[in-house]
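Shall we go through a protein fold together, starting from nothing but its sequence? Label the sequence line and the structure token line clearly, so we can match residues to local backbone shapes. Would you write everything just below, so we can both look at the same thing?
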Amino acid sequence: MVGDEGKELLSAVEGLRSQVHDATFPLDIPGVDKAQMSRSALLKQLDDYVIPRLNALDAPLLTVVGGSTGAGKSTLVNSLVGSVVSQGGVLRPTTRVPVLVHHPHDQNWFDGSRVLPNLARITGADETEHAAGETGVGQGALRLIASRALPAGLALLDAPDIDSVVHANRDLAGQLFLAADLWLFVTTAARYADAVPWDFLRRASEHGTSVAIVLDRVPPESMDEIRTHLVSMLRDQGLASAPIFTVAETTVTADGLLSEREIARLRSWLSALARDAKARSIVVRRTLDGALRSIPDSALVLSAASDEQEAATAALHREVETAYVDAMQSVQHAMTDGTLLRGEVLARWQEFVGTGQFLRQVEAGISRLRDRLAAAIRGNSRPTAELGEALQSGVAELLTAQSRAASATVLRRWRQMPGGPALVAAHPELADPAPGSTGRVERLVRDWQGEVLDLVRAEAGDRRTTARVFSFGVNGAGVILMLLVFSQTGGITGGEVGIAGGSAVLAQRILEAIFGDQAVRTLAARSRHRLMERAQQMYAVEQARLTAVVSAVQAVPGQAERIKAAAACVQGTR
């Protein structure tokens, strides 16, 4: 049963487990593989050992028997049980089914999902194991064997080889070790100093796991020397308290078992643990405390990875935002530096007002030109329409060019950033404008031109102004206003901008003659502002298209802090 303090700790651990389970690392950045592996390892440790053990502190002691290929693990298990329950030998089925041997009275502890919940339970003899290995039935399975040869309160789990040629077997061996209360690590006199076993033993030391060593196949004449060297190595790795049981190099019985004399001391030690609840509790508590102590470091890896995910995501988002801010600034600059008053627009403007003598006559007074202007720009005359169309095309091309430049800049920058190359490769459609974008730009400009005409009509409020507007034509006055929007900076201030040989000055003079100085300033400012608003709205749609790609693969904000807080809660309740 779990007391009040235990319930508080269990609740904290389950809270951490929930945060770790929900954590995602979707952005392909450096270190993401390590983060995924750390998350998986921590989840397995919590699911396979910490939570089950906290739920049942009085459950049988789970002893995992592991080691390198050919170390004699299965022979040892079979010898302790007194019969062949686990297939021995170097050659094993492709799918290695771990074997868990327990006393019949302890069956309820293991036939459910209390420990190793992701492994299905199967029963049967070695033939079943071999068939399972050949058919794949045994993948992800745990074979249970009940035996009265083991005392109640103790279970032995024969794990796959830690250096198996099959990657899945090595992973399973590591998972089983993390589920153990006690590691019974089997090595040989010839291979006890190998690197792979010591990697596992170092991990046990770091996690605070209880460990016992079985030194197998030791030549009697070298027993003391090898044991002394092994003791020294264990001490160097922080495992000085690990008991060592030696098995002399000997011939096994006809049944493939070790003689009772060779395993008597180990059997006695394991039986004492099973019978003595206090001694068993000490082993369990030591391993459990070690697992709980390792949680902050594991959580720190995940929280750091989460921070990196959020930082990379924010950087990708910033590139999108910056590119479209720059696009808006470029549009604004092009609207005031005369860029649009070149080429086709300039040609149509000169057709609109005439050239040469007409422009020189501006200096003599606008009133002398009124009759000619009225004839030239009244209503929907051809010059008016052509100038309006030229302006429409110029504005649409400007907006489209800046939009394309912004998206191209984003993709170029993403290719150089953590997480960006994978996004660009996964979304080749971003290299092209969104479907229907050309039509949307054209509608935007037409709608804006309609707003400009509405501003002209609204400004023609009194009779005198109305008469002037109608003498020139609403469309004509509106086109001139549009031209003026693209020719001077900061509204109409009277300062000349050398665009198209005085065209801006002429447009200003014409509109001043109709509306007056202040009204022209206001009309130009409002027209420019409305176009920028519409451009902003259009670019927001394009920007959202890129932002959505990042948002689709970003971790949930605050993930790092939640993991840290959950880990701190576990530490605070230990």
